[in-house]
Structure of ABC transporter ATP-binding protein:
Amino acid sequence: MPAAQPAPLTLVPPAAEPAPRTIVDIRNLTLTYQAADHPVYALSDVSLSISKGDFISLIGPSGCGKTTLMRVVADLEQPTSGEVTVNGMTPEQARLKRAYGYVFQAPALYPWRTVERNVMLPLEIMGLPKAERQQRAREQLELVGLAGFERKFPWQLSGGMQQRVSIARALAFAPDLLLMDEPFGALDEITRDHLNLQLTRLWLSTRKTCIFVTHSIAEAVFLSTRIVVMSPRPGRILDVIDCDRDLPRERTLDIRESPEFQRIAHRVRDGLMEGHSYDD
Ligand SMILES: Nc1ncnc2c1ncn2[C@@H]1O[C@H](COP(=O)(O)OP(=O)(O)OP(=O)(O)O)[C@@H](O)[C@H]1O
């Protein structure tokens, strides 16, 4: 009987990486506010695609439309023209499905509610049973490093801790997308460094898609997978910088001294200066 032949080797091509899922798709977005006596051209022809797990920072001069852009994604403003989808839905559908959490510049916590009850509030509005509300609130508070502070009132916490409570509140109903509008803008630099570090760890562990507005170049480079540099009003996109290509995903504060970090920071600064009108 002839010896069994070994099965011929077939080369299986490596499985292609699945294309990242688009969470936010913005096409040719223009927004003009109708102020009392004149139109305000806030955004002009903005197109941007944000994939699942991206951490996008929007940076640009004051009044260039960063908040407006986030508010359109959150269905708090209507575009004058252009298309926006969130998780494949219109912003309105996404809002109704609670597809995003919103963190504002000021923590906006209710002073008469404990920390835990502040985080539970959106869950209360959703009608979740108390035990589930409490469990979810505790999980989120632990995630932002505030386990043990559940029974405190907001006024008993520092500004940085209050902002962490508002992040926990935004995360409480497990949104796919986290919108953060200059959440650390009002904090001192050391606290801000600390929160940047915490936020980057939180992002690594949850892989939420984040859109983050900031005026700080260092903060944008430290946190982001991509930085979107905007022009003065009407806001247009001047540059989109891929930070992930040159910086590791896990970042510690000392990365800010690295030549790669400095190079990206320079490019952001160049973009901001190029687009800036000093006549304003
Ligand atoms: N409801 C509104 N009616 C009229 N103009 C508005 C309205 N909301 C915002 N604006 C104007 O639109 C422009 C863009 O505002 P927006 O708040 O989006 O800018 P921004 O880049 O977030 O500014 P900042 O960095 O100062 O927070 C500004 O000139 C602002 O004054």
Q: What stands out?
A: The chain has a mean pLDDT of 89.
